[in-house]
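Handout, page 2. Input:
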Amino acid sequence: MAQGAQRKNFGHNQILRPSAAYTPADEQEVLQILDRHRGQRIRAVGRLHSWSEAVTGDGVLLDLQRLNDVRLQSDGDQLVATVGAGCQIKRLLKELDREGATLHSLGLITAQTIAGAISTGTHGSGRNSMSHYVVGVRLACYDASTGQAIIEELSAGEPLQAARCSLGSLGIILAVRIRCREQYNVQEHFTESRRLLDVMDAEAPFPLQQFYLLPWRWSYFIQHRREDDRPRSRLARLYRLYWLGTMDYGLILQILFLERVARSRRLIRLAFRRIIPAFLIRNWRVTDRSSSMLVMRHDAFRHIEIELFVRRDQLADALGFTQEVIKIAGGRESALSADNQRRIEEIGMQEALAGLHDQYCHHFPICVRRVLPDDTLISMASGAGEDWYALSFISYAKPARRAGFSLFASFMARSMSRLFHARPHWGKICPLEADELTSLYPRFDAFRTVCNTLDPQGVFQNDWTTALLEADGQVGDFP
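Output:
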């Protein structure tokens, strides 16, 4: 145990100051810690690759990195892995690969723990989020009648739906049972288009694709992806080296120089219009295994991020609005189009828009990923109906120079939630008030009920999740 050991998250925008911290070796030790600290607030942390207040806590902190076993079993005609809560995704993928298996859905990074990934709705592109594939959660909590620490198994109904994306609010996740599949290959290639229609038309033949809106060039780079029965390409290793050197490191190093050293908006705009696109090789078709093709070294350099989810029928308007706001924030325009100006006036945000003018120059591609509806209560893609599209806005400004991005992120979250029912990612910058956030989720009351049943004293909350569970936001007018 460490007393009061201060920790920072990956983005260095959240600080944890626990009263006590533990790294338990097994489930029995977790129960002993819970009994020892009965009545105190207790939170678990993963790799702290989250920018929201979900990671914060000033009570007892549990780091479950030693609970990392992986067991793969057949369950009827399905493969199911039982994974220790602290197991990082990269270790899980390696263990599954030894058995010829992999996960149905992957996020961009593999540094997260499985418990942290599902607790905030981590997702990839073209499939449901990772949370959707969870079939059971093993949870440490307190017995309501005796007050003793016990283990609960959540495997059906609303308790399971809540545990699939819980914000750490039900108890201490000990293990996760998640559906897997046989290992498979993915083919990928890039194209560029000025039209969103071209991007959407490509979804049918390339259902795993994601795409990028390049600021200041205002074109779409489409990362076409689909499953491929053919073997790994002969040049797959070369492609991986190209990707690592050009995208994972080369692009970021260029941006770090422009944003942190040169500090030149003119050079940033020039780079996106002329230089950065020149490094993207179009129509190089490569096939490689899914666990290599679907991830990036997104965690190689410190950054901060907000990600907003919109329904398919709102995507075109949301991207058009995004482009106009970025131009205003960067000082290239002073007013929105007539339609978007009317929208801003209807929600009373003219003053906020005026305050954003010339305050922030966006300097990273806006990544857009499609997420199929989740069978959860409050993951960002929860609810039946249309697919969701996640729009990521990333800043590589130093922590001391993030005021402009914070202003931009706040404006985008507040305006897009009101105009397009956009849902901020639970694990990234989440600047909305508690009642605004909960109003975006029609089944938040059901989530609240499960939390209050499993944790009636609020032991496993922090201030942020407590505010969410106490909020009385009115549900929005969407399914």
